[in-house]
Amino acid sequence: MTDVPQTYDETGAVVHCQLFYVNDSQQAQIESLQSLIAEHKLPIVLETELSTEKLTQKRRQQLSQTSSQPILLLDEKDKLSWISDGLSVSPEWDKLQRRVVSAGRKSELLLQAAKITADSHVIDATAGFGHDSLILGSTGAQVIMLEQQPLMALLLLAEQERMSALPNWQKLMSRLHITNADALSYFTETGSVENKQSTIDVVYLDPMFPEDSYQDSKTGKGAKVGKHMQALHQLACPPTLEEERQLLNSAKAIVSRSAQGQGRVVVKRPQFAPLLAEQPASESWHNEAVRFDGYFV
Question: Which CATH number does 93-296 carry?
């Protein structure tokens, strides 16, 4: 894959993104993006440019290889995408409609592991493109979505705004609360507030893991790495063992205050990946590609 600059450095510097749009009538959408950046205090500056040529696959590849800044695209349907290694990647929540509608069925291992209801409060501590947050929120639960990377947070906020305009999605969108924050800092802040209203029943963790952990090294079986995951690997590195321990222990501390006394942490892993922080799970659910490890508190 093409090396892409991090969206911000260790000093928290402002991110400059080049935003291409395809026609002059999109000024309202651009202003909306600027409003989201200001409202959520994202360290992002958009440098907008009307595309004078069609953004073909070849052109996007060229932009990926030559630009020193992250590249965003606002297409003719007003969908915001990030151009990564020549591919346009975006949350594309509308493509998950079938799963969202049928999320209560036994096929969703995530919900089997999480055991949440419409009264539950959940933290998706590693939101990424937000696909699992949609499944969690489809139960009626309130979902706090934490995303450390400002670029990803902007993609999520723009997608939430786009989907909120569709009548069948408005209730679900209202249950998703997107925050640009790293999980450990958020857990520390939340844990220091003695407030029953902030009680969390489930913390969901889907941390980045090495690309070679998706498949069994001997049999070759397992999940293939899709374009969304390829893109995320350009932004984030797998946590160290010590970081895994801090993350899991902090998550356990948050759900230990669950109102029902039945808090749990659910960790998503490739089927053949090692346990997070080398800590045995209370119970696991898996299929041929992925595994959900539950830690009951």
Answer: 3.40.50.150
Query: What is the CB neighbour count within 10 angstroms for residue 235?
Result: 19
Do domains 15-89 and 93-296 share one topology? The answer is yes
- Backbone dihedral angles phi then psi of residue 154, each to the nearest 5 degrees: -65, -40
- 127-146: pLDDT as tens digits: 999 999 999 999 999 999 99
Q: What is the pTM of this model?
A: 0.88
CA 80, CA 73: separation in Å to the nearest integer? 6
Q: How many whole angstroms separate alpha carbon 164 and alpha carbon 175?
A: 11
* Structural tokens at position 24: 């002059």
CB-CB contact of 69 with 16 (8 Å): yes
If you search the block for the tokens 């947050």, which residue do you land on? 133
Locate the domains of the chain by residue range. Answer: 15-89, 93-296
pLDDT given at position 218: 54
31-35, 187-191, 250-254, 286-290: range with lowest mean pLDDT: 187-191
Q: Which of 223, 251, 235, 217 is nearest to 109 (CA)?
A: 223
Residue recorded with tokens 């999605």: 169
- Tell me which of 150 and 105 has the higher pLDDT: 150
- Which residue did the predictor score with more confidence, 69 or 143? 143
Given this structure, which CATH class describes domain 15-89? Answer: alpha beta
Angstrom distance (rounded) from CA 209 to CA 237? 8
